[in-house]
Amino acid sequence: MEIRLEKLRKEFKEIVAVNDVTITFPDSQVTCLLGPSGCGKTTLLRMIAGLETPTFGEIYFGDERVTDLSSSKRNIGMVFQYAVVYHGMTVYRNIELPILENKLTVAERRKRVEEVLEILGLQEYANWDVSLLDFGTRQKVAVARTVARQPEIIMFDEPLTNVDMDTKVQLKQALKKLAAQLKKTIVYVTHDQTDAMTLADQIALMKDGIIVQQDKPRELYNYPNNVFGGWFLGNPGMDFFEYDVEPIDDNVVRLVSPLFPRPMRISGVGDNRRITVGIRPERVCVSFSGKPDFVQGVLEHKSIVIGGQYLLSIKVGDLMLKAKLERETGHDLDNRVWIKCPLEWLKVFNSAAPSPTKIFKGDSNVFTSKAYPGPIPSINNLSPCFSNIQELVN
User: Fold this and answer.
1) Which distant-in-sequence residues (6+ apart) come within 8 Å of 31 by Cβ?
2) What pTM did the predictor assign?
3) Which H or E run contains 328?
4) Angle, to 10 degrees, between the axis of helix 106-119 and the axis of helix 135-149?
5) Residue 264, Cα to own-chain centre: how many angstroms?
6) Pairing label, strands 153-157, 76-79
7) Would you tell me the crossing angle of helices 165-182 and 135-149 to the nearest 10 degrees?
8) Rounded to 5 degrees, what angle do the CA atoms 349, 371, 282 make?
9) I need a labelling partner for 104 at 20 to 30 A (CA). Which of 13, 122, 190, 379 fits?
10) For helices 165-182 and 106-119, what crossing angle results, to 10°?
11) Which residues of 311-335 are buried (b: 16+ CB within 10 A; e: fewer)?
């Protein structure tokens, strides 16, 4: 069942938790609401579930307006951050109890319960009292009980936050399998980009109560349409460098940077005279020796990160950028390196002129470049990225 929100807004006195959000959650897909703490994702979920009343706006399930319906009449299931189970009952009874009202036969109820017990790896605990289980296993029971009901819409509010790593992996695998089998509409709230990238058919990225971007996980990662998306996704996020640029033609500007061997021509910028250039660390090419279109840099620091890759901090002129390399290559790097920022992986954004942390002055005083500061980008940095952006000037 498709979920449609139209200009949904939630205010708590002077605080706007959800700011006029319009979005569609496609039928039979997993949509992850992803964002930092306090961005409004749980408030949005609770309004969809009927646990919060919108200040303004409308909620539709399919063609039915449900804005004013109570939660019990919306045919939804919900799993919370903390496991909600019925103590004093067995695991089997916990899962079976909510589906007794569905008027299923004994055989049908048994089939549903046994299916979710198997998928979630709970068969051996079927006759255990839930009070004897650890938190991670109780959370599995909470998921199983919700899924066994087979509601039209299932919602998850950070269900993996407080479970151990082994249980988290098991639950992710089970949720992927359940989503494929049930073909239900699932809304999953998380601040963990790994959960979102693993589970989602699409991600709705939130910041300050708005949907910044909605897309498939890989598209969202590779093609962020704003600085915040590039910063929030990735470990670490994009390298950002801010520049003042000079107009050279209608809708075309020229910039100079130590990251490039020649000036760059960027089209499609309109009247903007300040831009932010971003590239993901794993897209930066690093070499032991000089090559065409590479520029020289100094390796300031390197460390091993997840997956055995090396994370490099490389100084180029007065700029510092991050790069990621496979272990075999990164291990043998000397202090002097050469780097290339492939044009096809550069993203150019409008800038809101935050205070610079580093400044580079090029051949002309017209050109300055600023390394993007570390704190979370403000809402002013959510302007869309430009198109037709990379063409080197000879």
Assistant:
1) 25, 185, 186, 187, 188, 200, 201, 202, 203, 204
2) 0.84
3) helix 327-330
4) 140
5) 31
6) parallel
7) 10
8) 75
9) 122
10) 130
11) bbbbbbbebbbbbbbeeeebeebee
Q: Could you write out the DSSP letters of every residue in 54-102?
A: -SEEEEEETTEE-TTS-GGGS-EEEE-SS----TTSBHHHHHHGGGGGG
Alpha-carbon distance 228 to 379, whole Å?
8
3-class DSSP string for 333-346: CCCEEEEECCHHHC
Query: Where do the domains of the chain lie, and which CATH numbers do they carry?
Result: 3-227 (3.40.50.300), 236-392 (2.40.50.140)
Q: How far apart are CA 153 and CA 136, in angstroms?
A: 23
Q: What is the DSSP letter of 234?
A: S
Beta sheet of 76-79, edge-to-edge order: 76-79, 153-157, 185-190, 30-34, 202-207, 210-215
**Could you identify the residue written with the tokens 């098991």?**
170
Are 369 and 242 a contacting pair, CB within 8 Å? yes
The residue count for the chain:
394
SS3 for 148? helix
Neighbours of 53 (CB within 10 A): 10
Q: What is the pLDDT along the chain (394 residues), one digit of tens a residue?
A: 999 999 999 999 999 999 999 999 999 999 999 999 999 999 999 999 999 999 999 999 999 999 999 998 999 999 998 888 889 999 999 999 989 888 889 999 999 999 999 989 999 999 999 999 998 899 999 999 999 988 999 999 999 888 888 888 888 888 888 888 888 999 999 999 999 999 999 999 999 999 999 999 999 999 998 899 999 999 899 999 998 888 887 778 888 899 998 888 887 777 778 888 999 999 999 988 888 889 999 999 888 887 788 899 999 999 999 999 887 776 777 788 999 998 889 888 877 533 322 222 222 222 223 333 344 443 333 344 544 455 544 5
Are the CB atoms for 277 and 261 separated by under 8 Å? no
